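Bench log. Compound arrived from synthesis this morning; before running ITC I wanted a structural hypothesis for how adenosine-5'-[phenylalaninyl-phosphate] sits in the protein. Inputs:
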Amino acid sequence: MFEEMELLRQKFTEAIAAADNTQAVEDLRIEYLGKKGSVTGLLKSMKDLSGEEKKNFGQQVNILKNEITESVAKRSAEIKQLELEKQINSMPEFDITAPPVLDRGSYHPITLVQRECEKIFRSMGFTVEDYSEIVTDYECFESLNIPKHHPARDMQDTYYLTNGQLLKSQTSAAQNAIYKKYRKALIEEGKPIKAIFPGRCFRNEATDACHENTFFQMEGVMVDKNISISNLIFFMKTMLSEVFRKDIKVRLRPGFFPFVEPGFELDISCLICGGDGCPSCKHSGWLELCPCGMIHPEVLKAGGIDPEEYTGFAFGLGMTRLAMMKYGIADIRDLNSGNLKSLSQFTGE
Ligand code: FA5
């Protein structure tokens, strides 16, 4: 029986050293110390021994039982430690002394250029207005001296909604509301109307390197007594020199818009090809950027302003094209692409 006990001890010593997970150790505990376990079996077999032998054997079995209990506890603790170390080693390395590397994202080039324009015009006393993207026929056309069936409506292929409203095809759609908002201060307090209103525009256009169906414009108006074309030219020049901060070639040519008289097209020499001609400027070397003109008397009248007493200028800056020129983006479609690799490289100042 003592031999049997010694064999059991050896067998257990080998088994516990080989147990490499918590479950294996628990299985061994049950196998040796459980109700039907080997050590319990040894105790049961004592009944056939004489008094002195029984006492002696009983003591030895208890020693073995204690040894096994201690070994199980020790091996369990070792395995828990090993499992913890394994878990820690599989975690990505984290160096708390390393400087923070935060991905802060970046602004879209149009946002950058819009903010820059807003800053420039604010510094010249203009307010920045917001306007809805869904507007009425009156706002987008009739109040701008473009009655129903006027051929000028064909200049913009407009998206109409089933309720008769439309997606704003030009930021000029906000002009009437701006005149009505500030006319009282103009007439009663002599405060000139000076406002810009950036916004998204929609046209059902075939897209190419310089045309999108969804693009941004920034409208600007100034109304007061004695406003003339020289005021218009001053503000256009200031805006362009502040945005580009380098000499750029511009040209002013006559342009037709029913809401201005006279009207102009302000083009800039294409900064992608340097004026040689490329897809970005439809191979003309020039890019239509900022049509403008003196506000038509009918438009002032529709806004509740007497054109005999007041005059003003308006412009409709193509902000998406401005972003193209400012950041050297050859294809306008990249700006709506959602391609973070190309869009996240611009940082403004
Ligand atoms: C207008 O939208 C007039 N409302 C501008 C205006 C305002 C004239 C006030 C006079 C007084 P036009 O359709 O040309 O004009 O658009 C103005 C500018 O928006 C263009 O010069 C161009 O820079 C930009 N633009 C027009 N269509 C697109 C397009 N499909 N994709 C990108 N930019 C465009």
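What the model suggests: The beta strands are 127-128, 134-135, 166-167, 193-202, 214-224, 250-254, 260-269, 286-288, 292-295, 311-318. Residues 170, 172, 203, 205, 211-212, 215, 217, 219, 257, 260, 263, 288-289, 291-293, 314-316, 318, 320-321, 332 surround adenosine-5'-[phenylalaninyl-phosphate] (CB under 6 Å).
ITC booked for Thursday regardless.
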